[in-house]
């Protein structure tokens, strides 16, 4: 078993000032989201529309995908289908080999992270340059992104400065974000103009028109896609929406939910390749059809990857994206990843207090915290929790479902705690590590009630 | 009005004063209060840990104790939410459903059912409010900053009736305290960090007390406050509404 | 079985029962008393510049002056002067040197400051992204309140490419500090004619 969220989080939190900074930075993004949402009186209505459009799409998904394919092919786009991450990577590798491509730029695509495309291509001696600034930073550092919208949010400008000094030769100790961004701009412009292949993600694919939309603030997807002679767009099949008019709902929700911007700087609508350009779309399943069949969890496929649930999550803000040890972290990741690998990700649905804030901010109304609860039940039923936990729970059930046992244990427990506090106040008691135990009262409420309660005792 | 009291297990065992205040206040407000004696726990600790399958015994016992009652009141948003969402009894499905409909969190029972407009209570202290997530988001006891809906708060509405009480809100008014049931031990580091951060915001407001409708949150905060050697105390909202200091 | 069939079959057997699309009542949408004022406020808040001009006269002069400066300036607006049609076949390497581009937009959106631009208005798809400074011209009558009206006024599939552009390129990937000019244009000035 990999290191768990709890252990990784504890490591993250050991640096408390940095944890505070991480928490406050993301809270600031959450507040910007609130402000943007409050700017639209129809916000809750928009969420409802977004949710219903996505529900409808999932209920007619096979037809929409076929319609999309047909239209896209008619537009001159080559459409590929990949059952899993490996097939996705091979399709891309084949295109690279066919054209003998050396220079590849990639804009943000969480799907390619999910499929570990970069690692796959690297093993075959092919280098991919990530062009989103945050992704380029973490790529230099050989780290995965810690956030699906803000990939380098776990880093401070000093870290970026040191990384750029090492890889781009920027001035040592110059931490000015403007200066560092400019250095990346120059470095990546070089990569763009020489690129032979641009890989992008897809935010929305429109069944009605056979086109797709890619949203960025930096313009990196466009710089690559309009330069390279080959463009490959990778999408999970849930990116489909029925009509172009539905883009209005989603583009209104997406950036406001993500960063509090009214819209991303660039919302690019691709329908046909340029003359002499090859345009490919890879439609990926990778467990999504299985998730679609899970009644309790299928609506996780409505996600538009805004990361509002990350920014609002009090656990995410204090544990960082890497503590989730998966490509998609945060609350949404914790309901998607058990479907991909239940055993490896059995800890994630428990990395939540079930506070419900994620569900409240979700622009397409995914009941994230309820799904976390439901995943816990399944993970336990499948036997992916420690035996000790199960024993504890069985003991708890024995005690709590039997009134007399409960009362006896209560008396014993309180009595023990009163005269022998070290029985519980020791290092084995995790509660006690940083918290005092509640002071045991002399009598339980029931005892008091039997003595003092009014005449209306039952 | 006949009311049955549900006193969650950890209140019964560790915070009887919360149960007592709830009982006394309901009686002061004219309710005829009963306390089914064989009650234990709603089963939430098991269910939230993924062992809902093991909470059947609790559920059956719960239904046995609370069947056929029109109003069931508990001083815990979290337990009430659990009952509302998950109480099941295969042998008595209708009874279970009725309980799910008839169970109320203490403060919403006062504002929505009893429609209390005045409370003869005084509490001359600076009090910070802690909104428990299950009460606020789960039961809708107050508006939430994430949602774009009109502002309201049932607990604040009640606390405003208390003489001498100076109410303050923390900066992040609906951030979770980090208790989270067994989360508090399985994710100990984050749980405590979240609690410390809540407390720091209340400290900024220089409060004497932190209050709320969920003793579980308060127990967690109290544990940290005591370890810090803080002068700030925790107190359940029922205790404040029942006090005449 | 091909991956395509495998996936489509799995989806068909796992997708839930058909639900309806929502009927979207556009009456609930936000309205602005002055769509131009809203457009300007929002665009300026996201780093764009907005100027209201009575006619193209001023811009024509500016274009002439810009071209005379010796910088690589591209005009993609027929009403302003001679079109630089040659850029249609330019490579990225050539376009990388473009200092400024003048491009016409089709629709402006008050709620977010975005302007829809068709590929044909760009001359070259890369132009509005790769230029250092972007000038966009729209008619005041083309500004609508929200994205809903904007999509009614455009046909996204009419050409091979089109984009909503809202202000200059930006990033906040380093410590959430906003920096204008990530990979695309360092500045975006929108001239509203009317």
Give a structural overview:
The complex is a heterotrimer of chains A (458), B (245) and C (194). Chain A has helices at 5-13, 16-38, 43-59, 61-74, 85-98, 110-114, 117-123, 133-140, 157-168, 177-194, 220-225, 246-258, 288-293, 308-312, 314-319, 330-340, 357-361, 368-381, 387-400, 403-419, 430-434, 445-452; strands spanning 78-82, 104-106, 128-130, 197-200, 204-206, 211-216, 230-236, 240-241, 266-270, 278-284. By secondary structure, chain A is of the alpha/beta class. Chain A folds into 3 domains: 1-39 and 304-385, no CATH class; 61-286, NagB/RpiA/CoA transferase-like (Rossmann fold, 3-Layer(aba) Sandwich); 394-452, no CATH class. In chain A, strand 5 and strand 6 form a beta hairpin. In chain A, helix 9 (157-168) crosses helix 10 (177-194). Chain A is globular and about 90 Å long. With 245 residues, chain B is α/β, with parallel strands linked by helices. In chain B, strand 7 (209-212), helix 12 (215-228) and strand 8 form a beta-alpha-beta unit. Chain C is of the alpha/beta class. Chain C starts with a helix and ends with a strand. In chain C, strand 2, helix 4 and strand 3 (100-104) form a beta-alpha-beta unit. Chain C has one domain (31-193): NagB/RpiA/CoA transferase-like (Rossmann fold). The interface between A and C is large, with 94 and 72 residues. Strand 9 (266-270) of chain A pairs antiparallel with strand 8 of chain C.
């Amino acid at each position: 078993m990999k290191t768990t969220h709890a252990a990784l989080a504890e490591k993250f939190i050991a640096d408390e000032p940095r944890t505070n900074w991480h928490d406050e930075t993301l809270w600031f993004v959450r507040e910007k989201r609130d402000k943007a949402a409050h700017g639209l009186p129809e916000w809750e209505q928009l969420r409802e529309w977004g949710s219903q459009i996505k529900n409808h799409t999932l209920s007619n998904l096979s037809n929409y995908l076929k319609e999309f394919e047909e239209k896209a092919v008619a537009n001159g786009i080559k459409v590929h289908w990949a059952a899993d991450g490996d097939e996705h990577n091979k399709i891309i590798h084949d295109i690279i080999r066919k054209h003998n491509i050396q220079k590849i730029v990639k804009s943000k695509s969480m799907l390619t992270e999910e499929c570990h495309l970069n690692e796959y291509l690297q093993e075959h001696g092919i280098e991919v340059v990530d062009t989103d600034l945050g992704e380029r930073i973490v790529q230099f550092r050989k780290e995965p992104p810690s956030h699906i919208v803000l990939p380098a949010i776990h880093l401070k400008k000093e870290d970026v400065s040191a990384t750029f000094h090492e890889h781009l030769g920027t001035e040592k100790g110059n931490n000015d974000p403007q200066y560092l961004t400019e250095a990346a701009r120059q470095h990546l412009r070089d990569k763009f103009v020489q690129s032979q292949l641009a890989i992008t993600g897809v935010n929305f694919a429109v069944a009605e028109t056979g086109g797709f939309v890619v949203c960025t603030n930096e313009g990196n997807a466009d710089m690559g896609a309009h330069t390279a002679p080959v463009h490959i767009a990778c999408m999970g099949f849930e990116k489909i929406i029925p009509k172009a008019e539905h883009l209005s709902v989603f583009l209104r929700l997406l950036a406001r939910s993500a960063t509090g911007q009214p819209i991303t700087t660039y919302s690019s609508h691709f329908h046909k390749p340029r003359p002499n350009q090859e345009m490919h779309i890879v439609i990926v399943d990778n467990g999504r059809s299985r998730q679609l069949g899970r009644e309790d969890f299928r609506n996780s496929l409505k996600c538009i990857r805004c990361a509002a649930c990350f920014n609002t999550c009090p656990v995410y803000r204090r544990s960082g994206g890497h503590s989730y040890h998966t490509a998609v972290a945060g609350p949404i990741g914790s309901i998607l990843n058990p479907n991909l690998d239940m055993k490896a990700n059995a800890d994630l649905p428990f990395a939540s207090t079930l506070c419900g804030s994620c569900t409240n901010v979700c622009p397409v109304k995914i009941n994230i915290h309820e799904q976390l609860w439901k995943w816990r039940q399944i993970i336990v039923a499948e036997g992916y929790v420690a035996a000790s936990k199960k024993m504890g729970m069985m003991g708890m059930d024995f005690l709590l479902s039997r009134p007399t046992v409960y009362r006896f244990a209560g008396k014993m427990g309180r009595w023990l705690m009163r005269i022998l506090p070290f029985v519980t106040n020791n290092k084995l008691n995790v509660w006690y590590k940083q918290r005092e135990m509640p002071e045991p009262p002399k009598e339980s409420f029931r005892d008091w009630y039997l003595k003092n309660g009014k005449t209306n005792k039952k | 009005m006949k009311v049955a009291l549900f006193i969650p297990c950890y209140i019964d065992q560790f915070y009887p004063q919360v149960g007592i205040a709830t009982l006394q206040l309901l009686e002061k407000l004219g309710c005829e209060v009963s306390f089914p004696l064989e009650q234990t726990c709603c089963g939430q600790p098991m269910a939230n840990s993924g062992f809902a399958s093991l909470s059947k015994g609790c559920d059956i016992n719960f239904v046995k104790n609370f069947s056929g009652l029109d109003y069931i009141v508990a001083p815990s948003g979290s337990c009430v939410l659990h009952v509302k969402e998950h109480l099941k009894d295969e042998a008595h499905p209708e009874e279970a459903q009725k309980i799910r409909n008839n169970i109320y969190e203490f403060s919403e029972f006062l504002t929505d059912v009893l429609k209390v407009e005045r409370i003869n209570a005084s509490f001359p202290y600076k009090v910070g409010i802690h909104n428990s997530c299950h009460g606020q988001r789960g039961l809708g006891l107050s508006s939430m900053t994430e949602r774009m809906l009109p502002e309201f708060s049932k607990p604040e509405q009640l606390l405003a009736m208390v003489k001498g009480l100076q109410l303050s809100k923390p900066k992040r008014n609906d951030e979770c305290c980090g208790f989270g049931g067994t989360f508090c031990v399985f994710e100990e580091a984050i749980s405590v960090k979240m609690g410390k951060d809540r407390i720091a915001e209340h400290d900024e407001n220089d409060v004497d007390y932190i209050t709320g409708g969920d003793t579980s949150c308060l127990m967690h905060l109290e544990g940290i406050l005591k370890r810090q050697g803080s002068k700030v105390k925790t107190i359940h909202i029922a205790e404040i509404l029942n006090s005449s200091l | 079985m091909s991956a395509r069939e495998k996936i489509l079959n799995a989806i068909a057997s796992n997708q839930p029962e058909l639900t309806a699309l929502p009927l979207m009542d556009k009456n609930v949408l936000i309205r602005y008393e002055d769509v131009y004022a809203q457009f300007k406020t929002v665009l300026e808040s996201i780093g764009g510049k907005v100027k209201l001009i009575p006619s193209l006269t001023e811009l024509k002069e500016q274009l002439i002056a810009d071209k005379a400066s010796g910088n690589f300036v591209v005009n993609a607006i027929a009403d302003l002067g001679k079109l630089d049609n040659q850029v249609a076949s330019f490579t990225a390497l050539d376009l990388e040197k473009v200092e400024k581009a003048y491009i016409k937009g089709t629709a402006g959106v008050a709620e977010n400051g975005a302007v829809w631009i068709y590929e044909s208005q760009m001359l070259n798809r890369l132009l509005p992204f790769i230029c250092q400074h972007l000038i966009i011209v729209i008619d005041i009558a083309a500004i609508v309140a929200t994205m809903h009206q904007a999509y009614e006024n455009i046909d996204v599939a009419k050409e091979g490419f089109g984009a909503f552009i809202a202000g200059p390129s930006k990033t906040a990937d380093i410590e959430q500090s906003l920096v204008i000019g990530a990979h695309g244009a360092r500045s975006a000035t929108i001239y509203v004619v009317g």
